[in-house]
Amino acid sequence: MGDNVSTSDNPAPGPEETPPDAAASEKAASEGAAGAAAAAAPVKGTGRRGETLLEVEDLGKHFPVTQGIVFKRQVGAVKAVDGVSFSVRKGETLGLVGESGCGKTTTGRMIMRLLEPSFGKITFEGHDITHMSQRDMRPLRRDIQMIFQDPYSSLNPRQTVGSIVGAAFRLQGEQPRQGVRAAVQELLEMVGLSPEHYNRYPHEFSGGQRQRIGIARTLALRPKLIVADEPVSALDVSVQAQVVNLLEDLQDELDLTYVVIAHDLSVVRHISDRVAVMYLGKLVEIADRADLYERPMHPYTNALLSAVPIPDPSKREGRDRIRLQGDVPSPLDPPPACRFHTRCWKAQEICKQVEPPLQELSPGHMAACHFPENTTVSATDLVAKAAVAPGPAPGPADSPVGKD
Amino acid sequence: MARKNDKRDDEMRDGTSTAPAGPADSRPPSSFLEVRDLRIHFPTDDGLVKSVDGLSFQLERGKTLGIVGESGSGKSVTSLGILGLHNRRNARVSGEIWLDGQELVGASEEQVRRLRGRDMAMIFQDPLSSMHPFYTVGHQIIEAYRIHNDVTRKVARKHAIDMLGRVGIPRPDRRVDDYPHQFSGGMRQRAMIAMALSCDPELLIADEPTTALDVTVQAQILDLLRDLQREFNSAIIMITHDLGVVAELSDDILVMYGGRCVEYGTVDDVFHAPEHPYTWGLLGSMPRLDRERSERLLPIKGTPPSLINLPSGCAFNPRCAYAELNGGKSTEERPDLRDAAPGHRVACHLPAEKRRQIWNDEIAPKL
Amino acid sequence: MIRYIIRRLLVAVLLLAIISLVTFGIFFLLPKLAGQSTDDLAARYLGREVTPEGLAGVKAKLGLDDPFLVRYWEFVQGMFVGQEYKFGTSITECPAPCLGYSYRTNEPVFDLLLDRAPVTFSIALGAAVLWLLAGVTIGVISALKRGSVFDRASMSAALAGVSLPMFFTGLVSIWLICRQLKLLPTPRYHEFLDNPATWAQALILPWITLAFLYAAMYARLTRAGMLETMGEDYIRTARAKGLPERTVITRHGLRSALTPIITIFGLDIGLLLGGAVITETTFSFAGLGQLMLQGITRSDLPVALGVTMATGLFVIVANLVVDILYAVADPRVRLA
């Protein structure tokens, strides 16, 4: 599926990458103009930051399910993530949304290499880190950091704030110029805490402050990529906004790249440049923020957006609601072909037989659906295309297009 | 409401002029549910925790009151207080709770127990931990039904299946014998609702009923609650931190902060003409899907206060961006809840015109 | 549920097989490691008149020179269908549950066990029932009346119980109750089938002695479990339904609080036998402990092996019962 990913939207390859082959260049030529035009708008900051920082291709994680007492035999697999592909450009924020069990957290953990991928490939700054050993990963660990959901359990209660935040220096064997203490205090200030908090313990802080400590810890080594797994969902509403603003400020200040995993669609819209929607281990739609929220193509995205309660009582009546029936099916035995067909109101026979590939339906906007909405591309076209769609990804070099 | 809104604040500070009738007045009210000057205090080693401190509101059948607040605002303590679920040994409950003409705070534990489940019921945030893992869903509904209805197991079981069907659980005759862990999250919350509604209570308290659920399932549950309310004509108290949920379901809204009500009014009042800086803060803190994306969120500074050590004066003053406009008043005096407009009450020292001006000029345009 | 029981049964049988194989292996290897030849073993069996013919005969009769697996197979066979020992022309028939003969007394090991096991198992089971009842009751009351005089007193007593060794409490109780106060005669074991009353009377002090230690532990465990359970969300739900407090405590609270107790009980069964052995020694009862000691000190391997098998069987069966109880209590286990 790699060839379907971020086609025209994708910037020039990084210096380490092999140059695109002939076929890709051709494709680039034909789509380049439109792609560049569409992609230029939503990227914030000082214009486009071209390079791809992180590339995920056909990534999957299957957890085996075993039975038996002495001899374990595998009776199935939980297909937590089943072939997702996307790329993250330097300086942007990619939002990963979906309901529980969609595989967004598993994806994040695989990027962090906290989980071993079952298949697929993760490329970070041109290095294939998919199966890199822990030792080889170590120098890269400083570049990829994670913010966790629960600020209560992710901080060691027996360590002072100073040693929690300073641990990163110790682990990487780095001596900051100004000394660890000063460096930590600088970090604390950066995340809106007071340097005097250095000798305090986590329990003396509120949830929001703890999350700031967690953020300070991840920032210690000046990472390039931060994977934030539900960074605000455990916090009070008024505090959520503080942390969201902090994350945005830090991004501008330190030129960070984020992958934000969250279930809250409003938060994701606020914080992300591009948004990927997952359902049952698959990517169903990925697009620029404005595009996705204003013109969602996949019915699931539509349903998700429609389900979000709107804090405006005057819009309570007359809202066009889509109500999905039932719950998300078990990832142990996901529906065949299009995984959403069991809950989809547009589903037809083909949805049960042919899996719709993730297709670029308008520049920079990809969806995996036979009958997408908000697009002029007709369903039949797509079906025809789907029928002749090539097999698995030829490689990453296939996709980069449209250098500007 | 008939309270004088003059400047004699010090006289009224303790009397919390929130109730339409004063605390001394204990005539049965005309409303279906009326809470007057409810105080729930917990003596602890660290001091007296005033989780709820002078709360008053009323609610009619078929209507929904949304209670909004952050952690530690006292919203959940209020709901447990209405049900009489606080241990009388370690909680001091005072004030009045009138449910359909019957006063509950002064009633015996046994009297209140008989009302629980039958006249007032509750659904909780986490349906998995709120159901006993060792009993089938059916058993737990049957148990709830049979405490208050003298029927055989067979009749009760039929009723349980019927209830499960009504809350939208497919094949209820088979699911009735399943255990809670065999249900999905959404189905579990439906079962929980079925259990709460099994005795056809007139008051349903829903404490963060959808917080643990996915957004599509949340939408289903909110729809279900709305439909069931129409069918049963129950009064619902919806306790949540999510303004979206409140806006979808409520008729009235009560905003709590530090154990007290800071703003109380109809859903239109509170969303379209909010008067309290805390309410403004809540509205500014949440990113919204129904508006243009704002460049920045407008958070409230600081964190929710600890109930043991509430700030003096207005509990919100350390976080309030407009506290200085009142001179030192905010830190010295606790503002009373007063009518800003008929039926719309707010506890703030800012003059009414000033509040309206701030809202119209500074806050509303940025949301 | 039935599938679960069958599964546990299969596991139990498998475990027994492994235990028998391992213990048999150990007892097979032990003499060799000690440098004893099979001749030495046979000589011990013969007693005073050691002749080469006699030695050969004994070795053939007991199959001492046979390879390990053959001997193990015969041992297993003996348990199920019995065994024949040929000594010259005489044939000794050892009927079905045959565990061999004592090298020393020449008695069938199974009969020895049959004689001794009831003493130990009576002490163990009786004490277990007593400590569960006492421990759980005290624990529940303490939890419900947390901070009360009862709570503090019983938890202090529990602390004492945990720290006093059995031989101390045992001897003190004999001295106090039997010698000084003369409330009970000095305990002597009686068969249950002869007279249950005298059986119980004889055992009451050993039971209390052994149960005191564990009841104390279980009271503390139950108290902690009960306190935790009563704070659970589903207890709040039960109250919100309007259930009377008594029902809330017993049907919702206790039910959950007891499940971990059952698990711990399963683990304690092994220790329980050890405790029973110390207790029977304290009270000078002739039980399995004494038999085991004799078997080991006199290198009477069949006896030691038999005792090990008997206790192993007891622990496995008891654990099976506990597992099934656990599944009855917690549906999540049996459906998993």
Automatic annotation (TrEMBL), chain A:
GTP-binding in keyword set: no
Biased composition (Low complexity): 22-41
SUPFAM superfamilies reported for this sequence: P-loop containing nucleoside triphosphate hydrolases
InterPro entries in the cross-refs: AAA+_ATPase, ABC_transp_ATP-bind, ABC_transporter-like_ATP-bd, ABC_transporter-like_CS, Oligopep_ABC_C, P-loop_NTPase
Coiled-coil region: none
Pfam families the record matches: ABC_tran (PF00005), oligo_HPY (PF08352)
Region of interest called Disordered, as start-end residue ranges on this chain: 1-46
GO biological process per UniProt: peptide transport; transmembrane transport
PROSITE patterns, sorted: ABC_TRANSPORTER_1, ABC_TRANSPORTER_2
Lineage top rank: taxon: Bacteria
Domain ABC transporter intervals: 54-305
Biased composition (Polar residues): 1-10
CDD domains registered for this protein in UniProt: ABC_NikE_OppD_transporters
Keywords for this protein: ATP-binding, Nucleotide-binding, Transport
GO molecular function, one term: ATP binding
Family stated for the protein in its record: Belongs to the ABC transporter superfamily.
Descriptive protein name: ABC transporter ATP-binding protein
Source organism per UniProt: Actinomadura rudentiformis
UniProtKB/TrEMBL annotation, chain C:
Keywords for this protein: Cell membrane, Membrane, Transmembrane, Transmembrane helix, Transport
Membrane topology, record value: Multi-pass membrane protein
GO biological process: transmembrane transport
Cell location: Cell membrane
Cited InterPro entries: BPD_transp_1_N, MetI-like, MetI-like_sf
PROSITE patterns in alphabetical order: ABC_TM1
Family stated for the protein in its record: Belongs to the binding-protein-dependent transport system permease family.
Transmembrane segments: 9-30, 119-144, 156-177, 197-217, 261-283, 303-329
GO cellular component annotations of the record: plasma membrane
This protein's record includes keyword Phosphoprotein: no
Pfam family, one: BPD_transp_1_N
This protein's record includes keyword Manganese: no
Domain ABC transmembrane type-1: start-end pairs: 117-326
Name this protein carries in UniProt: ABC transporter permease
Xref: SUPFAM superfamilies: MetI-like (SSF161098)
Organism annotation: Actinomadura rudentiformis
CDD domains, per database record: TM_PBP2
Domain of life of the organism encoding this protein: Bacteria
